[in-house]
Design goal:
- By secondary structure, the protein is α/β, with parallel strands linked by helices.
- 38% of the residues lie in helices and 18% in strands.
- The chain contains 18 helices and 16 strands.
- The strands form four sheets. It has an eight-stranded parallel barrel with strand order 9-10-11-12-13-14-15-16, surrounded by four helices. It has a four-stranded antiparallel beta sheet with strand order 3-4-1-8.
- Helix 8 crosses helix 10.
């Protein structure tokens, strides 16, 4: 939070018996059974935080459990503003016990809810810990059983391996009326997927849809899911080429997930299986501006190969059983790409270091026509397979590529990129970017456009957040302000616009009424 956390008096509520202490930026002011009060005065090492080094930033609240009754263990710890002072007024919850009663109904801060109020689809890739194998490695090793061992709401923490409980994802989407976009882990077996789909069917309000994606960026060699898909594709003899085998396995597994989810949702209220929207993700960087190279590999080996498989399996119960698909249920609704816009920056740190922020703004402006041409070519390429193109992630991606790929970053360059994302000119740049992608056919009422990401601190690995922290004044967040104003200018206040949830936040289009 870097000093953006609200100072003041907080109430600590807990069940059971034991002894709690608080350290670092919090001190205990009173104690009673099941209830304490603490004073929080945030401090931070901003100079250290600016370097991006580990363990830099806020000192925060350090909670120490020094004793507990094994027959009635101390548990269910809730920390909320007391109803007076800056911390309470920050959330507008009112005085007295309003915060205490609120936390029993919902764990979500009102400022967070306000920041995502206009978003219609929320992608939970980060919340679901999609790019990590920590929890799933134990499942594969037989140490735990997948569905039973998954993260649940009563777990001691919602951080770490396994992500956030699916029940909290459902609770948030039910509260704001947004469609959840779930990323099914590449190691999840069919039983887990069936249980997951069943929980969503039984718990979600009937007027929201469910977007389903197999893992995240299975094409990306930086992730373990890419290696897994290649190995599985080779083992299944889908191709003798590892990359091609990986693309084909990704397409096959997407069809299997589609079959499971649509079967489970077949009897669901609100539209049954039609509520399930299946996305097969792919790579956008194989496309030239003339369109001749679009989908030369990825589109053909996912959509093209999958279509051929479905044609071959049509009418053959044996093949459908072999591949665990139902031809009538397995077709994807969308082909998803990452429609990032890098302004022609980030490839050569030494060159970019010599640019002023104003010169970077100029590069952003001149790079838009080529970005729009690429988008149009990709839309046309996907259309040849009869599947609409959408984005699973999108937005300005002004970051040094080596900082992400190898951790090597040019000293001082990230600060310049961050300044560019905070610059008043970013308001107009972001609006122009949205207009360009709307003209290209990637932004409309019928297809999600997934901004990455709703809220996240700017670091050397990217200035991804529309807002840098929950509660950031809109006047200090030009991308967020630009998006809100851009939505206002659309015919009905929506544009199929969404966003990704970060590890601590959430997507975009007008909210359905509660």
């Amino acid at each position: 939070m870097l000093l953006h956390a609200w100072p003041g008096r907080y109430v600590v509520l807990y069940d059971g018996e034991g002894h709690l202490d608080f350290e670092y930026d919090a001190t205990v002011s009173s104690r009673a059974k099941g209830r304490m009060e603490i004073i929080f005065k945030p401090t931070a090492d901003l100079a250290c935080a600016a370097t991006g080094a580990a363990y830099c930033g806020d000192n925060g609240i350090h909670l120490v459990l020094s004793a507990t009754n094994p027959d009635n263990p101390l548990r269910n710890i809730r920390i909320v503003p007391s109803g007076d002072g800056a911390a309470a007024s920050a959330g507008g919850a009112g005085a007295g016990g309003a915060w205490e009663s609120r936390v029993e109904r919902t764990p979500f801060h009102p400022w967070f809810l306000k920041s995502i109020a206009r978003y219609r689809v929320l992608r939970f890739m980060d919340w679901m810990d999609t790019n990590s194998d920590g929890f799933w490695a134990d499942v594969v090793a037989g140490k735990v059983t997948g569905w039973e061992a998954r993260k649940k709401p009563n777990r001691d923490t919602q951080a770490g391996p396994g992500g956030i409980a699916l029940e909290y994802i459902v609770q948030l989407c039910n509260l704001v009326g947004a469609d959840p976009w779930v990323n099914v882990h590449h190691l999840a077996d069919d039983a887990y997927v069936t249980a997951m789909a069943t929980l969503l069917r039984e718990s979600l309000r009937p007027d929201v849809n469910v977007y389903v994606e197999h893992s995240n960026e299975v094409w990306n060699s930086l992730f373990s899911q890419n290696k897994f898909a290649r190995a599985r594709g080779l083992a299944l003899n889908l191709s003798s080429d590892a990359a091609t085998a990986g693309y084909r396995y990704h397409a096959l597994r997407t069809g299997q997930l589609a079959t499971i989810f649509r079967t489970v949702f077949g009897s669901a209220s609100g539209g049954g299986a039609s509520r399930v929207k299946v996305v097969v993700g792919g790579w956008a960087l194989l496309c030239g501006t003339n369109g001749t190279g679009c989908g030369a590999v990825v589109l053909n080996e996912t959509l093209g190969w999958a279509a051929g498989l479905l044609r071959m399996a049509n009418g053959s119960l044996q093949l459908q059983q072999q591949f665990k698909i139902n031809v009538s249920l397995a077709t994807p609704d969308y082909f998803g790409i990452a429609a990032y816009w890098g302004c022609g920056l980030g490839q050569n740190g030494a060159v970019d270091m010599n640019l002023s922020v104003e010169q970077m703004v100029a590069k952003c402006n001149t790079s838009l026509p080529a970005a729009e041409a690429d988008a149009k070519a990709l839309v046309a390429a996907a259309a040849r397979y009869g599947v609409p193109l959408i984005t699973y992630e999108a937005g300005p991606s002004i970051v040094e590529s080596s900082a992400i790929e190898s951790g090597r970053a040019t000293v001082g360059l990230a600060a310049k990129y961050n300044d560019l994302n905070r610059h008043p000119a970013m308001y107009g740049l972001y609006s122009a970017y949205l207009d360009a992608y709307r003209r290209a056919g990637l932004v409309d009422d019928g297809r999600p456009f997934m901004q990455f990401v709703s809220t996240r601190t700017f670091t050397r690995t990217g200035s991804w957040g529309l807002q840098e922290y929950t509660g950031q004044p809109i006047s200090h967040a030009p991308k967020y302000r630009s998006l809100m104003d851009w939505l206002d200018k659309q015919a009905n206040g929506t544009a199929g616009f969404m966003t990704n949830t970060s590890s601590s936040s959430s997507p975009t289009s007008l909210r359905r009424p509660l």
